[in-house]
Design brief:
Length: about 55
Amino acid sequence: MDVAVTMGCGDSCPLVRAKVREEWNIPDPKELPDDDFRKVRDLIEQKVTSLLAQPIR
C-alpha cells in the first residue's frame, strides 16, 4: 500500500504497512447534528482532494 490515512475517532488502529501514513484528526461525526456532520464530510473531501493532488511518493 502506498498511502494509509487514519482518522482515529478515538479508536486504536491496526498496524498498516504503507510507504506514507497520515493521521487526520477529524471529529467523529456520528453523534453530531446534521449541519456539523456535513462540515466533517466536507473536511474529509477537502483532505482527500488535497492528498490526490500531491505527486506520487
